[in-house]
C-alpha cells in the first residue's frame, strides 16, 4: 500500500479550518491533512467583543474541534494541539520538541500576542467572565483601538450600561482606516447617538504588563500628557502577524516591518526555493483586509492550487475583493459597508454597475 503524503496546516481559525474543509475531499487518496492549533477549541473571534460585556453565552464562543471536519472522508484529517516554533524545509517543529513532516505547508497562523501558549476552553471562558465582571462594576471604561473589535466593545458596553462613561481612543484621525471615510462618519454618528466619547489622533501609553485592571481607579495616559479616568481599560489595538516560525527558513518571505508573510498571487510564499509553502489569512500580505470573508476566499484558492500542483498542473491566482465588512454598532444595530471601487460612493446607482459587469461584460453604451 502506498504511503500517503502529508499537508500540514498551521492555525485553526477561519482560514485554517476552511482550507482543511476544501482540501480533504480532493486529496484524501494521496495526502493526509494535519491541522496544528495552539487552542483546544476553535475561537469564534467575532463574538469576543460581545462576550466581554454580555453574560449568558460565553461558552458558545469556543467550539470543540472533536468533529470539526465531519464532512471530510474518514481518517483523512487529524488535529494536533501545539505551538509551532520553527519551519524547516520538510517539517515543522513544535515547542514540545515533536516534529511533523510535510509535503505541503499552509501558514494560517493569523495575528496574536507573543509569546504563544497552549490554551484550554475553561481558561478562555474564565478570562472573558472576569472582564465581564470588571466592566459591570466599573464607572469609567476606556477602550483603546478604533478597529472593529474596539468599536464593537465600546458600543456594546455603552448600550448595556448607559450610565457608564465609555471612551474610545484611536491613534489615527479615522476609525476603521482601511475603509472609505464614509464608514468613519457612520461610526462617529452612532457613537454620538449612544453617548460614547471618541478621542482621535492620540496614542495611549500602554503600561508594561498591561493596564492595572484590579478594581481600583487609575488613569489612562495619552502621549500628549492627558489622562483619562478609568476603572477598567481594554486594549484592542490588534496583534502581530505570527510569522516568526518561518523567519529562519525564509527571511525574504517575511516583511521586516509589518511581519506579514509575503506571498505571490498564487498564495505561495515569494521565496522560489519553497513553492510548496503557502500563507493565507491575516498573516499573509495579500492586499485583502483582515476578515473571515477574504480568509475563506484565500483558503479556496490555496486549496485549489495545492490540488492542482499535486496533479501536475499550474496554480491559479488570488484576486482580492473590494473591502467589505459587517460591523456591529451595538446590540441590535449593525452596518454592512463596502468600499466603493473608485473611491466615491455609488449607492445612488443602486450598485447597477455590478449587474452590468456580470450580465453584459464589456458593454459601456448604457443606451443599448
From TrEMBL:
Source organism (scientific name): Favolaschia claudopus
Lineage of the species this protein comes from: Eukaryota, Fungi, Dikarya, Basidiomycota, Agaricomycotina
SUPFAM superfamilies: FAD/NAD(P)-binding domain
Top-level lineage group: Eukaryota
Record domain FAD/NAD(P)-binding: where: 6-292
GO molecular function: electron-transferring-flavoprotein dehydrogenase activity; flavin adenine dinucleotide binding
Name of this chain's protein: FAD/NAD(P)-binding domain-containing protein
Coiled-coil stretches noted in the UniProt entry, renumbered to this chain: none
InterPro entries named among the record's database cross-references: FAD/NAD-bd_sf, FAD/NAD-binding_dom
Pfam families: Pyr_redox_2 (PF07992)
GO cellular component, one term: cytoplasm
